[in-house]
Amino acid sequence: MNRSNFRVFIVLLATLAICAPHFAFSDSWAIRNGITSAIKSEPGFGQHELEIDASRGIVTLSGMVASEGDRQFVDQVARKQRGVSEVRNLITVNSTWDNGGMSAEESKRLAQEIVNLIQQTPQLKFSRIEVRTRGASVELSGQVQSQQIIAKAIAVAQSVPGVRNVSSKLVTQSTAN
Predict the structure, then answer these.
(1) Can you name the CATH fold of 23-93?
(2) Alpha-carbon span 61 to 48, nearest angstrom
(3) Where are the alpha helices (DSSP H) in 41-103?
(4) CA 139, CA 75: separation in Å to the nearest integer?
(5) For residue 12, how many C-alpha atoms fall within 13 Å in the half-sphere facing its CB?
(6) How confident is the model at residue 126 (pLDDT cuts 50, 70, 90)?
């Protein structure tokens, strides 16, 4: 290797050493973000308090979820993320979080039924409303255009058979700004 090529090699090596931590951070952020997005988009995912740590392809999941099904769901979501080589699942199930006698699958079906009804309702179908269920309890969140839309979304959720109560974290666009 001549001197010129050697200098180029050293510069490239130094650049890689400086930039490598940034790429690792970027990949870790992408993995955490992918897992979080997938969990949030799952209708009916139960109550949870999760921490997701990703470093060099190794994901550590910790915290609590409402059911073993939710624990397994988070594990599978993490394993499917691009760039994940290992998952350490330290999540525990908090059996004190009451699902009202409803299974996780029934709760997910209830959430999907509400989502479908929202999408079929002309005043709501273009709104960005997230639906979460824990047993027969429903939580609506997101940003909508008016208080009337909030009231309509609550009424739609309450109209679904099996819903015990509905809480709203919906905000209007003027409130959110």
Answers:
(1) Histidine-containing Protein; Chain: A; (3.30.1340)
(2) 12
(3) 68-80
(4) 24
(5) 6
(6) confident
**Nearest-angstrom CA–CA distance, 94 and 102:** 15
Assigned CATH topology for domain 104-176? Histidine-containing Protein; Chain: A; (3.30.1340)
| Element (DSSP H or E) covering residue 146 | none
Task: Give the global pTM.
Answer: 0.48
pLDDT tens per residue across span 25-54: 458 888 988 888 888 887 767 667 888 999
93: confidence class by pLDDT, cuts 50, 70, 90: confident
pLDDT of residue 153: 94
Domain pair 23-93 / 104-176, same fold: yes
How do 165-172 and 128-134 pair as beta strands? unpaired
